[in-house]
Amino acid sequence: MQVENTEFRPKIVAFCCNWCSYAGADLAGSSRLAYPADVKIIRVPCSCRVNPMFILRAFQRGADGVILCGCHPGDCHYTTGNYYARRRMTLLFSMLDYLGVENGRTRVEWVSAAEGVKFSTTMNEFVAKIHELGENVRLEDLRCKG
Amino acid sequence: MQRIGVFVCHCGTNIAATVDVKRVVEAAAKEPGVVHAEDYQYMCSEAGQLKIREAIEQKHLTGIVVCSCSPRMHENTFRQAAKRAGINPYMVEIANIREHCSWIHKDIEEATEKAVILARAAIAKVMLNAPLTPGTSQVVKRALVIGGGIAGIQTALDIADAGYEVDIVEKTPSIGGRMSQLDKTFPTLDCSACILTPKMVEAAAHEKITIYTYSEVEKVSGFVGDFHVDIRKKARSVDMSKCTGCGVCQEKCPSRKTPNEFNRGLNTRSAIYTPFAQAIPNVPVIDREHCTKFKTGKCGVCAKVCQAGAIDYDQQDEIITVDYGAIVVATGFDTIKLDKYDEYAYNQSPDVITSLELERIMNAAGPTKGHLERMSDHKPPKSMVFIQCVGSRCADKRGKSYCSKICCMYTAKHAMLIRDKYPDVDVTVFYIDVRTPGKNFDEFYRRAVEEYGVHYIKGQVGKVAPQGDKLLVQAADLLDNKQIRMETDMVVLATAIEPNPDVRKIATMLTASIDTNNFLTESHAKLRPVESPTAGIFLSGVCQGPKDIPETVAQAGAAAVKVVGLLAKDHLVTNPCTAKADPIFCNGCSTCEKVCPYGAISYEDQLVNDHGIRETRRVAVVNSALCQGCGACTVACPSGAMDLQGFSNRQILAEVDAICR
Amino acid sequence: MQKVDMAKADRLREMSGVNTRKCMKCGKCSASCPAYEEMDIRPHQFVSYVESGDIEPLLESKSIWKCLSCFACVERCPRDVKPAKLIEAVRQMVVRQRGGNYLSPNEVPELLNEELPQQLLASAFRKYSK
Predict the structure, then answer these.
(1) Where is the 4Fe-4S ferredoxin-type domain (chain C) (predicted)?
(2) pLDDT exceeds 50 at position A1
(3) Which of A51, A111, A139 to mutate to test the interface with B (most CBs of B within 10 A)?
(4) Do B389 and C26 touch (CB under 8 A)?
(5) Tens digits of residue pLDDT in A59-77
(6) Residues contacting residue B633 through CB under 8 Å, at least 6 positions apart
(7) Extents of the domains making up chain B
(8) CB B515, CB A112: distance < 8 Å
């Protein structure tokens, strides 16, 4: 199938913590649970490693959505990392919303190493949402294009 | 300048079927810094690794990217290959084009495009990689076992027999645990005490084992190989070095109204007590809550009668700090509370008892000296009803969702023993399913039915109601499709077991993960069943999940082997991907210290050369042995001084850029 | 051969909010039921009949008029299946099929009694307005 040029192909960055969500994504893979190829995963040791700067940079470089996945509350490999991530992202996402990057473009989800199904459904939902919202035009630095 | 090699794996057809591997190689070769790119059928094979080694040596590569399966699978394999070829193992990055690409996409065009982008991101990251050297940390050659039941005792014995020091911390006055309360054990009907007490004695006498009874773990810090544990030795009020265990104090103690925990409250004990006759150590404790001397100041009988002068009313709790290399949790279980099960009339009638209470009644050292009798009028029962799955397999909020696993077997045991000893007692068991997986287990249950004439009825009991001196039982017989109403003399509830409630506190101290039912989580359900995901913490017995005695002993041995494997090492290799502060940027604000869950960050005055200005500043220093590399501090740092090696800000930004390019 | 009517079974599940798959067939509902002896189809059977789509016998059963709506089965079910709600749904289905001879709202206030559980009231209306 030749992808038409006019078709919107979103750029989606997914940050996954090494211990739960990355393993959950691996499980989705080994269970052959499909989700769109638009999602590209970056492995981080813990969701608390994700600096708001990384997310801003993604939007600056033309990302259409950013999702952060971590261990379920209480299950963090580093005990409290995901709580920090949750707080930081709550603040960041409300600021992004204020700046015009809709809340639907950013998401935090808890995915355990056993939740391949959840990982896949989450990604499917998230991509569908981005399709609904269309291309992101805010924050993008046009000088970075090309 | 970095010289990068890219190696793309076909993984047979796992990757090659949906990703055009040749195109990935071509695209990767065009990336800046890449001086070598090739593909191979199986990169992880001996031949594949040889290709990597040859390329590193011939093209003088400084870093490599392997496009293959998940790094969780083969990252270490390729790191070792790189190391053998003479480059730093941390100069390796993996692009996961199998689990995250070929396996989930069907369209070759789409999958290939994604694989190229993932390879690009990995190349961008490896360009910024720096060689890292793992540090080492010492291993303290001593293990701690929390809990002195059969699980803890067996683990301690196995570790001690391998030649390492072990401490057992037990919160009650004696080791022995639940097994010491049991009368007989299935399916062989050995007397529980006869097989347990020798083990208790052996543990107490072992030169490598130290037992702290009436003690609790108060605080845990440190990490695998070097834990620091505060143990609170509660005041016994009896000097252990002087007491001879003669027992006179217990006989003479005038306050005898305290419910006897060991007999599950079926009778009472004195305020100064040992839980049971074979207690180890055989030194009593004074229960200060119930002792007249402590309540009113007037009594002191025990001190008067003690010829050894061992009674010490002024004894204080003592906290000792000990270092351990490994910790085993063996905190065991208790039965659930039955307050929410009014339909079984447990709180209304003394003749409705739990199975553990029946164990005490059947035991020769128990409250009835082993005579089967009703607790209300001490008459022998003529008929008995056993109810299975009380609080187990429940989806409602009253009970537990899991099967308690041991109840089917001990109920068969109780029914059989009663029919054997008192053949005129009619025994009926109401069951939902009889679950007997285990060696000789089903044969045992069939014997109860066929040889001993125990009536098994499929159907749950709906209500137990005291009626005169009898109990009315209303139940369903699902196979005959009828409702049964019968009178009986005693009802025994196969009460669900739950992890000891204290385990949540202990798990929090150890940062060991715990599930919604308070069972400790194992590192891998199949392949690492006795290890907690937290390094250096091991699991033994029911704290990990319901199990019977043989399984507990087997798991205790397995946990001991894992501990010995750890203690046998002289030092451990630490993860080099730790945080590091740049003293030039650090302003000593202490923000990072507050978010660090490991207490790995401290501050010291350092001479800093800030663009020619030399001054002494307070800067953050990370203890790389304590740091686990979560990165919480890197984001918290307001000045951007803190960075995580192996996952640096620049590396992750490079990945983001590569993906969004 | 029994007639399988999955559409009606789904309707009953929807009306009652009962998930029949949660049942582990322990029979505690039937063990608890005070009207058991008078029923032709027993509380635990309601769950399995609906699960297998065998609805016709339930609609014709006299059990639905014998159920006291005491909710002992709901209270004690270890799997939280709520058989009485299922029986209630069958009753409702029968009433609706007959053309819905409900009480008029004006009649309700004087029948109210604070001591009565609301659910019993609702079931009673349905039962005695047949």
Answers:
(1) 13-44
(2) no
(3) A51
(4) yes
(5) 999 999 999 999 888 778 8
(6) B579, B591, B592, B595, B596, B601, B622, B642
(7) 4-126, 142-234+317-332+500-567, 248-305, 334-498, 579-645
(8) no
Structure tokens, A126: 């998230």
- Tell me the CATH class for B142-234+317-332+500-567: alpha beta
* Complex ipTM value: 0.95
Q: Measured between CB atoms, which of A2, A26, A51 is closest to B70?
A: A26
Considering only CB atoms, B653 lies closest to which of A3, A44, A57, namely A57
Q: Exposed, middle or buried, B261 (CB in 10 Å: 0-12/13-18/19+)?
A: middle
Using CA atoms, how far apart are residues B541 and B205, in angstroms rounded to an integer? 23
Question: Domains in chain C, please, with CATH?
Answer: 6-128 (1.10.1060)
Q: Vertex B342, ends B339 and B348: CA angle to 5°?
A: 85
CATH 1.10.8 fits B4-126, yes or no: no
Q: What is the CATH number of domain B334-498?
A: 3.50.50.60
pLDDT band at C130 (very low <50, low <70, confident <90, very high): very low
What does the alpha-carbon distance between residue B420 and residue B427 come to, in Å, rounded to a whole number?
Answer: 11
* Contact at CB, A44 and B106, closer than 8 angstroms: no
Residue B476 has, within 13 A of its CA and on its CB side, a CA count of 25
3-class state of residue B46 by DSSP: helix
| Parts of chain B with a pLDDT under 50 | none
**Structurally, what CATH architecture does the domain formed by B579-645 represent?**
2-Layer Sandwich (3.30)
- pLDDT beyond 50 at A2: no
Q: Say if CB B531 and CB B544 are below 8 A apart.
A: no
Give the chains touching C; criterion: ≥3 Cβ pairs < 8 Å. B
Q: Which domains does chain A have, with CATH numbers?
A: 12-144 (3.40.50)
**Residue type for C54, please?**
D
How far, in Å, CA of A15 to CA of A59, rounded? 14
